[in-house]
Amino acid sequence: MPKRVLQGTVVSNATDKTVVVRVERRFTHPLLKKTVRRSKKYHAHDEANTAQIGDAVSIEECAPKSKTKRWSLVPQA
């Protein structure tokens, strides 16, 4: 089964080797037929501490690294 990959924006990099990424999804409301935006924050592992606040990054799911981290940064090519 392939790993899920999400795109988002870094909102915090205060902790060591960890970034908080906000992932936004858009969908049409079933009754109102209006486009709705919802976002969720994920804690992701950043081994080299390279991501800065405001960066657009991709994250992929991985084995649990800590109590809250189940995602890791995808290295940019």
Automatic annotation (TrEMBL):
Keywords: Ribonucleoprotein, Ribosomal protein, RNA-binding, rRNA-binding. Belongs to the universal ribosomal protein uS17 family. Signal peptide: none annotated. Gene3D superfamilies: Nucleic acid-binding proteins. The gene is rpsQ. GO terms for biological process: translation. This is Small ribosomal subunit protein uS17. It holds the Pfam family Ribosomal_S17. One of the primary rRNA binding proteins, it binds specifically to the 5'-end of 16S ribosomal RNA. One of its GO terms (cellular component) is cytosolic small ribosomal subunit. CDD domains: Ribosomal_uS17. GO terms for molecular function: rRNA binding; structural constituent of ribosome. SUPFAM superfamilies: Nucleic acid-binding proteins.
